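fold-stage: in
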Amino acid sequence: MKVVERDSMASTAHALHILVKHKEQAEDILKQLKKGAKFQTLAKKYSNCPTGKKGGDLGEFRRGTMVPQFDKVCFSCEVLTPQLVKTKFGWHVIKVLYRT
């Protein structure tokens, strides 16, 4: 319980993401990750975001910087467990590396 409380107080997160147009593709990427594929490799191959070239690395960002749906997942999901979220940009596979 304390971990959740501490994370809810986190003001920054460092995350990787892969942006695609369709939910089916995002779900397929999630399956590949669960089978052991490297996040950075899949980001370079599939991501529609310029960050794909650097393995999907968004760096560290402050709470409230990203669009609301993305922000909510980054500051509430389990760290290191890839998550799916839909935003106005498309479907994201997000992996939060840490929160501070």
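fold-stage: in (second)
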Amino acid sequence: MSNHSANPNPDARRGTGPRAREQAVKEPLWRQVVGGALRGERRAQGRTLKEVSEAARISMPYLSEIERGRKEASSEVLAAAAGALGLSLADLLALTQRDLAPADRRARPEASAAPSAPLRIAAVSRLPGPPPAGCGPARAVVRLGG
């Protein structure tokens, strides 16, 4: 008969101890970052989850799970959700940059020693009118901040 309480630190074996949890807090998951960007854009447009899910042909519960960072969506689903919001995948990636850059800086100490601060997206504004051929579903102006 084995005694499971013999190991004084069972978390050390599983990689779930305080250090592993601390590292997990610092680095956001892609599904959380992209979901937050989709939700933020949808809310900025004043659109409902139902409107966007219908336009993207994604079930409303699934889109909600994506926005909350609980589901890892395929590139096809992300493209459909972004397209329903008038964004290309490149636009969606640009919206996620502000959340990913700080984590990247913390992960690579040598990058934080750079003399200039990283650029951050301050605002994304859509340009009126149809986009030129080959430009994707929307044209936008990206204002960078320091």
